[in-house]
Amino acid sequence: MTEPTASPFASFTESDLRRLFDRQEYVVEDDIVVPVLLALRLGRPLLVEGEPGSGKTELGTVLADGLETELVRLQCYEGLAAENTLYEWNYTKQLLSVQAGERGVTDDSSVFDEEYLLERPLLRALSGDREQPAVLLIDEVDRADREFEALLLEFLSEFQVTVPELGTIEASVPPIVLITSNRTRGLSDALKRRCLYLHLEPPSFEKEREIVQRKAPELDGETAAEICGVVQRLREEPLLKQPGIAETLDWSRALLELRFGTGAEESDADESDADETEPDTDTALSPRLIDRTLSCLLKEAEDVSRIDDDLLEDLARAARDARERTEGQ
Amino acid sequence: MTGGTESAALEAVRDHVLSEVVTFADALRAEGATVPPTATVTAARAVAALPESDETRVRAALRTTLVSQRADIDAFERLFPVFWENLTGSGTDESSAASDGTTQPFAVPQAGESNRDGRDRDETGESIDRTERAQSVVPESNAPADGDDESDTERDDGHVFRALSTRTGRSERLVVDDIAIPGADVREPLERIGRALGRKRGRRLSDDPAGSKLNVRRTLRRSFGTGGTVLEVDRRSYDQTAVNAIVLVDVSRSVLDSIDRGFLLGVLRQMRADWRSVRVFFFDTSLREVTAQFDEPSSDRAIAALERAETEWGGGTRIGHALSTLRTDYADAVDRETAVLVISDGLEVGELDRLERGMVWLSRRADSVLWLNPLAVDAEYEPTCRGMAVASPYVDGLFGFARPADLEEIARQLSLRGVHGRIGYVYDGRGDSARRPRGRGWARSDTASEGDER
Is residue A128 over pLDDT 80? Predict the structure, then answer.
């Protein structure tokens, strides 16, 4: 049994990682800190799965920013080919160079030189003299074909790319690899076996409230609690597309705009006309306001049509409960 | 405490943790979770890498390493408390205070009976017993390979049933413990396959009224009944059973993760031994002939010869490039009597045009082309990946190939229907045939007449 090669993060501690996330305003719990720490310390790729909008891509961005290193992102799609991920030759430049050589303008002996090489994300993550490893974010790998997974196996095993005309390019420091998947299809066992696994669950009420407060500090604590109360209640419904953290933040910003932005006056006037019987219409989320802004949370027509008056009342009640809980703390 | 005692105690704790992790993985598998074979090793490393080993962190570390899909998280969460209780309740210093000093049974809530039974039998056993039992539950089918650690290599009644893989995934020198395939498992189906593929005159004579050979003995014996007068002459001819074949073996990482190396080498060696003429080529990003290495008199020497030849495992997969090299550098290897066997998963990373040109040439030049695909053992497999989609119209049969039973199935189909009949994974009679996409089969004889192809 071989021991894994020493990781540059062998001495990286949990508190270092927590501080990093904290600096980047990224709210995490143990279920995220430990997998990321292990990925860093063991030098293994981390496969991050979760619903769209759960913060998978953000994790890569935060890590790169926090470690003050380059984020190399490879967005996967159907038909992604090796040349789109590894390298290509700059044919136009090569052609011009050859033509120039024929006219005696240049005496370059070869057009297969690094000068003519176009680095694509996988090669870019390896090249360069870095002290800190780059963060390689392979986003939505489930969109790519199985052939790409096979290519990825080779890459993740060795962290080197062979360019026949130039030789082998090896990473001086292996990149930190994050692979995200929306689970639209199953990944191969071989790929999963090489990765540590992290499934991002929808956040708890407390965690979501903290995220909202950090990302939208203009919102007061009670409003943030209301927003999270509604979203948590909404997630209990059998929706086709559950609102993720991204949707919660969108909604928070939309409410902020409605309450304090240009449309605030008009909105509040409408509110008071329509919901005369509602308590605290100037502060609490009313069914009408929720209904008007649902498009920030729900992205499927079937889900929107599921929201009837009763459910809107439930959502408003959940908001009031959350506000009261927060005020009581 | 002296240094020696301390070291022994640490070792005992380590063994206990390892043992419990393996047992936990075993229990997860019994619950239907997909736990990769190497996951236990990774899990142990993860636990060792944790700065503090409290329950929350250990739970997160094990979930990260033992779970590889969302569907298994529930089972993990249900079983983890039992694991934690066993881990902290016995085997460590704390455990010495336990009432009976034995490991707690892994009495999993709602776990399968077999797991409970198995655990009860192991209750008083040593940790190594549990380790062995845990390994024995790895499914026999196309089980995932050990990507990092060859120590997970295991056998069931002497059969290698899980792929050995490289530790780092890079191209590396060939390493195989041994070629330990029981001869009978592969010899008999290979003989039948050979007879079906054979286009050259064999050594065996069989009755043939139009044959050129006279069966003197039988003719004379029959003449005794007519007073020595020969009324009918018995004739014989040589069977067309001698095989002239080439085998193109994809030794890229994705294939080696799906098929056992020992099994693969054992089959190749047996082909080389039993068939009239077989040339073996390995390819990944380049093609190289390794026929001579399989002629060594023993398995060990064959492996040593492959090592001496610096045969490597695991590069990329450029089938089109390999076929192109075969065409230019080894053109004499393929003629109208040659059966071509391609062992590959078809996950081409090279140019598809080149692959198609190579397959057209191969199908025209050779007598038959069979594609043995380790991924096709899956009941839901369809050749939809781009490489396989390009290649499949030009092959006579696409079969699953990962274990001896697959050879049996290939032999059965070839014996029944011949190499140009309706053969392939879609006609695999094993298991739940309803799961096979029969209506979408692609065997060449289904899609085009033989005349069109040649």
Answer: no
Distance from CA of B278 to the nearest CA of A (A): 29
**Region B389-408: what's the mean pLDDT?**
90
Contacts of A121 (CB under 8 A, 6+ apart): A72, A73, A74, A85, A136
Which percentage of chain A shows pLDDT scores above 70? Answer: 87
Residue A194: closest C-alpha in chain B: B147
Instruction: Tell me how far apart the alpha carbons of residues B385 and B373 are, in angstroms, rounded to a whole number.
Output: 12
Question: In this complex, how many residue pairs, one in chain A and one in chain B, have their CB atoms less than 8 Å apart?
Answer: 134
Contacts of B47 in chain A (CB under 8 A): none
Amino acid type, B220: L
When CB atoms are compared, the residue of A42, A82, A153 closest to B253 is: A153
> According to the model, what pLDDT value does residue A176 have?
94
Do the bridges between strand B287-289 and strand B338-343 make them parallel or antiparallel, or are there none, so unpaired? unpaired
Q: Is the pTM of this model over 0.80?
A: no
pLDDT in tens, B38-60: 788 888 888 888 877 788 888 88
Q: What is the pLDDT of residue A100?
A: 81
β-bridge partners, B200: B242
Residues 210-269 of A with CB under 8 A from B: none
Domains and CATH numbers, chain B: 3-137 (no CATH), 244-453 (3.40.50.410)
Supply the ipTM of this predicted assembly: 0.74
One DSSP character per residue, B151-191 reads: GG--EETTEE-B----SSSS-EE---S-----HHHHHHHHH
In A79-138, the residues whose Cβ lies within 8 Å of chain B are 82
